[in-house]
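Dear colleagues,

As part of the handover before I leave the project, I'm documenting each prediction I ran so the next person doesn't have to rerun anything. This entry is a single chain, and its sequence is reproduced below.
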Amino acid sequence: MKKTLVLTFTLTSLGALASNFSIGEPVTKWTKTEISVCFATKNEWTKSRIRKTQGFGSLAKADEGLPFTLDQKSLIQDIVTANYTEEETGIHFTGWKDCSETPKSDVYLFRMEKVSSLKGKANIGDNSEYHRVAKLPSNPEDKTPSKVKFVKMKDSGLKEYVLLNTKVDEVETPNAASVARKDKTTFEEHFQMTTLHEFGHIAGLRHEHARLEDAKEDINCKTTYKNVDEMKEEEAITTEKFSVYDPNSIMSYCYLRKVNRQVGLQFKVKSSGLIPMNLTDNTIYTKTLVNKNPKIYEYNLKIALSALDKHSLRCLYLYDQDEFAEKCNADFSL
């Protein structure tokens, strides 16, 4: 029997968490590169796909669909528009008014505020659903495990959505490593990283850590999860990989947890010491000599898409056929 479910991707608390890089789903990408976003409330709940998402009902609860404050709106818009630019990613987000003013917006942005491990949730691309196929190809003799795939559905009239939680607790799951319960980042910093992550899903990106064999060798994963095997997510038969593994992807739970729970956005390292994380992308940090004897360097991480995050989005939305053939493969590196 074929089973179908509406797929969204969840970012759970980095203290209580929901190959090669950026994993994308080309079949669900948008057919345009300018995506309009609006700030929604309970009034728009039934008009979006969130009403059919597992864990949520057709009507918003008391702590769901809350109005965004002006500061929250500004914080979200600023971090998204600074990172998702037409020049660097091929896709960009516009609008940013209330949905009551712009009901035809492509994406409805919802806010909830409750003590929960859930940090955020979003669709993968446009009008996508996740299907499990019993056997592929359809052959009675085929003994391989069932496969999954993404498909582009007919427009149901329901809007794509991003849900952001403005109040997250610090409860840890049994799979969480023994790390400090208090974040090494501020709530605002943490929230901005979550926002970039969820908009990556809306743009069509999957989780980086789904490439389990690479994650097992990533120090960011090994030091933040007791059992990396438990992180496994199924790679769909529709999934494409656009570059080598990226330990600094905003789509990686390992990277987000490493920064938020263990090292913060700023740390110091002696010249004779080891950097306390897997840090390979020099576009997302600065390194400054702050002491000469002994030599001590200060690292400052940026809240940003990694270079390979941007590359993967260019593969989806910007590169022409020749560039795609040359650059968008699992062996590509910057």
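The chain has eight helices and 14 strands. Residues 149 and 238 are 5 Å apart (CA to CA).

All the best with the project,
I.
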